[in-house]
């Protein structure tokens, strides 16, 4: 299924639900891992998540291949009113943009994985939470992030990308600063 520009925020929100699902999974899996052979538990976690990522990448490569026009489907949303003048040039620029975004998302994913790997350990060490409780807190963060990505994607489709993104970044900062005395 494809998306017209009118619904691409929602599409991105659906894509970003994937990391939220991964956070939920890691919240339940990481605290239960035990060292295997010469691997520490966090190394085992990285190995498990690498295998899952390879499986998902393979599934994506084999299943998600066609443009909606190629399989007689219409993209979701409202069709743009302005016709595309030079489709070949637009497709080449889209490939460059896709590669650029892919590199950025890979960097984001790599840094996110480091954070995910050690957040439960930090909650256990710094706040003396049990591993199961820390994992549960992390799973709740994942659940909330799944819905927030979809919500703010939908909002950006209705009020615009810039204002939607500004709102998404403003609300958490505003909530954290409410009631602070420093």
CA radius of gyration = 20 Å
Which structural category do the helix and sheet elements fall into? mainly alpha
Mean pLDDT: 77
Helix content: over 70%
Task: Count all strands and give the number.
Answer: 0
Major sheet attributes: none
Distance between the termini: 49 Å
Count of helical stretches: 6
Bin the strand percentage: under 5%
N to C succession of SSEs: HHHHHH
Low-confidence stretches: 174-182
Q: Quick one: overall form?
A: globular
Description:
The protein is an all-alpha fold. 72% of the residues lie in helices and 0% in strands. It is built from six helices and no strands. The longest helix is centred in the middle third of the chain and has 41 residues, at 87-127. It is globular and about 60 Å long. Mean pLDDT is 77; it is low at 174-182.
Summarize, please.
Helices cover 72% and strands 0% of the residues.
Ordered list of secondary-structure elements with their pairings:
Blueprint lengths: L7 H8 L1 H13 L11 H23 L23 H41 L3 H29 L1 H17 L5
Tags for this entry?
single chain; 182 residues; mainly alpha; 72% helix; disordered C terminus
């Amino acid at each position: 299924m494809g998306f017209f520009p009118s619904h691409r925020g929602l599409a991105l929100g659906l894509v970003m639900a994937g990391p939220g699902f991964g956070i939920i999974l890691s919240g339940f899996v990481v605290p239960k891992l035990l060292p295997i052979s010469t691997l520490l538990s966090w190394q085992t976690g990285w190995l498990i998540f690498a295998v899952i990522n390879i499986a998902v990448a393979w599934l994506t490569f084999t299943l998600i291949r066609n443009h909606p026009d190629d399989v007689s489907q219409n993209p979701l949303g409202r069709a743009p009113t302005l016709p595309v003048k030079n489709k070949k040039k637009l497709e080449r620029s889209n490939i460059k943009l896709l590669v650029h975004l892919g590199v950025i998302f890979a960097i984001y994913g790599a840094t996110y994985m480091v954070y995910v790997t050690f957040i439960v350990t930090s909650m256990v060490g710094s706040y003396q939470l049990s591993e199961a409780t820390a994992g549960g807190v992390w799973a709740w963060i994942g659940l909330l992030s799944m819905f927030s990505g979809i919500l703010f994607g939908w909002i950006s489709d209705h009020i615009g990308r810039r204002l939607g993104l500004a709102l998404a970044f403003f609300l958490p900062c505003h909530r954290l600063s409410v009631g602070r005395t420093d």
